[in-house]
UniProtKB/TrEMBL annotation:
Residue stretches making up the PIN domain: 2-115
Top-rank taxon, per record: Bacteria
Keywords: Hydrolase
GO molecular function: hydrolase activity
Keyword Hydrolase found: yes
EC number: 3.1.-.-
Protein name: Ribonuclease VapC
Amino acid sequence: MAVIKAEPEAQRLVEIMAANPCRMSAFSVFEAESVIGKLGGPLAVPDVRKLLGAFRVEIVPFDDRLAVLATEARLRFGKGVHPARLNLGDCAAYALAASLEVPLLYKGDDFALTDIVSAN
């Protein structure tokens, strides 16, 4: 999102993405397309897929295993139960990183309050 919206952190995120293999759950792709569609309208939605293609991001199915891990993340780190205040999309991203035992690339401070390893 930060890259598409050209936010101040975008260049740093681009450099990290270019230097590392990237994966994203189908749930997170849906979330990104929904947000971009709301902000930029339907014509902006393909920008998400273009960015994912440019960085050769592997889209991982959001299966039952990830659903269980996301639910566990929500119960441990979700809004109203933990200072990290992870939302549903955050929990999906957490679940994928945890399931693959890989660092998570993120913007902001919320994930720093969890036990996930940062790719930042």
